[in-house]
Amino acid sequence: MQFIKHTDHWLAASNTINTAFKEIGDFENWMKTMEFDCRSINAATRNIHQE
């Protein structure tokens, strides 16, 4: 019974860690997308300003 408790605890902890890593990866992808969009807007604004 003690082993089952410890195993359940470790499984829950590892699932929490996996979820956190997934969320970090999602945030990183969102930030990369935002950076690309900002660079695109900046380039478009510069092109308009130069004309």
Folded structure, characterized:
- By secondary structure, the protein is an all-alpha fold.
- The chain contains one helix and no strands.
- The chain has one helix spanning 2-50.
- The radius of gyration is 22 Å and the shape is rod-shaped.
Q: Helix and strand layout, with pairings?
A:
Blueprint: H1 2-50
* Number of E-type strands: 0
Give the biggest beta sheet.
none
Mean pLDDT: 93
Following the backbone from N to C, one meets helices and strands in this order, namely: H
Strand residues, percent: under 5%
Radius of gyration: 22 Å
Count of separate DSSP helical elements: 1
N- to C-terminal distance: 76 Å
Level of helix content? over 70%
Offer a quick outline of the entry.
By secondary structure, the protein is mainly alpha-helical. The protein contains one helix and no strands.
Keywords:
51 residues; 1 helix
